[in-house]
Design a protein that fits this description.
The longest helix has 18 residues. The protein is an alpha/beta fold. The structure holds iron/sulfur cluster (SF4) (2 copies).
């Protein structure tokens, strides 16, 4: 099917930053590399973060897009200034989404949910003993009208049944989208190779399980993309659908990661995308950086991260391609 498609377009009208803010975590999941949870890299100071946030807010304003910050870690809610940061972005018309293990206190979630446009809670069966706390946090997020709320159940093959039974319990108690996430070898280590081994039945369950609709009026999610086919037909899918259906090879396509989105690493390096096939654009510590205004040509075998998958891509294998130089724009 991917062979016949000519475009994967992101229509959410945001300029998105997927930011790995700090690599410290209060959990140490067995399938998670220490690069993601050891705290080996110092988180950037608040002033540096705000300085870069301001650059993005100004750039987004100029391009008529809404700034959209997606923070992940580690566990970002542990960061001392995190509440202030999301409040600042919110007050400057930016959107904030976070990935979290949900372990912060109910008080923290009650105070900060007003600044959160999206929350993706990950359920880790190895490390979360307190399923009740997870459900209570989920209820706070369900109750926030502005917050798109999603849960990823990390499907540890050794505890598959326990994961399923929690997914069903959550679905019965809370209205939100739920995905059963297959785990990949090399998670958090930049060298993702292949999925852990699941049975056919488990694979099918992961592809078909869904939560319950949220019943909130929310803008188009950044993770939703429109696929256009060679015959002119179109359909809209999520990046999760692309991933579970193995539609992740875009070699030879023009990719707009960098033009409509960027990523920031734990050490503050700014790249077009997590595939990092091109050199860094700059660093959050730089005085100014050059934002690309032309796409890059994909030469990476697996486009596996949600942030990377969500950027617009045009299939140049079926269209004539004018070789273009990379032009950049200073911010
Ligand atoms: S998978 Fe998430 S919750 Fe688990 S140790 Fe890694 S960063 Fe922490
Ligand atoms: S792998 Fe990288 S260059 Fe290729 S489509 Fe994905 S984000 Fe773009």
């Amino acid at each position: 099917m991917m062979k016949e498609s000519i475009k994967v377009r992101n229509n959410s009208k945001v300029f998105s930053i997927n930011w790995a803010l700090m690599n410290n975590c209060n959990y140490k999941c067995s399938y998670c590399h220490s690069d993601l949870n050891s705290g080996s890299i110092k988180a950037p100071p608040y002033e540096v973060v705000i300085n870069f946030v301001n650059k993005i807010i100004n750039h987004a304003k100029k391009t008529g897009l809404r700034p959209f910050f997606e923070f992940g870690g580690g566990e970002v809610t542990l960061l001392r200034y995190f509440g202030d940061l999301i409040k600042y972005i919110n007050h400057n018309n930016g959107q904030v989404c976070i990935v979290s293990n949900g372990s912060k206190s109910l008080k923290w979630w009650n105070e900060n949910v007003q600044y959160l446009d999206g929350v993706s809670l990950s359920f880790h069966v190895n490390d979360i003993k307190d399923k009740e706390h997870f459900v209570n946090v989920a209820k706070i997020l369900e109750g926030s009208k502005k917050t798109r709320f999603h849960v990823n159940i990390m499907m540890d093959p050794k505890k598959f049944d326990e994961c399923i039974s929690f997914a069903e319990e959550l679905k019965s108690k809370v209205k939100c989208s739920i995905a059963l996430q297959p785990l990949f070898e090399g998670f958090g280590h930049g060298g993702i190779t292949k999925k852990y081994t699941y049975t056919e039945k488990q694979d099918l369950l992961m592809k078909t399980f869904r939560g319950r609709p949220e019943e909130k009026e929310l803008p188009i999610p950044n993770s939703s993309v429109e696929i256009e086919y060679f015959d002119g037909s179109k359909n809209t899918v999520s990046t999760f659908d692309l991933l579970v259906n193995d539609q992740i090879n875009f070699i030879g396509w023009d990719c707009y990661a960098g033009v409509e989105s960027m990523i920031v690493t734990f050490s503050g390096d700014v790249h077009r995308a997590w595939c990092m096939q091109d050199p860094a654009i700059g660093s959050i510590y730089d005085k100014s950086i050059q934002i690309p205004i032309l796409p890059t040509r994909c030469k990476t075998k697996i486009c596996q991260c949600g942030a990377d998958l969500s950027s617009t891509k045009i299939n140049r294998n079926v269209h004539k391609f004018d070789d273009s130089i990379i032009i950049t724009q200073s911010i």
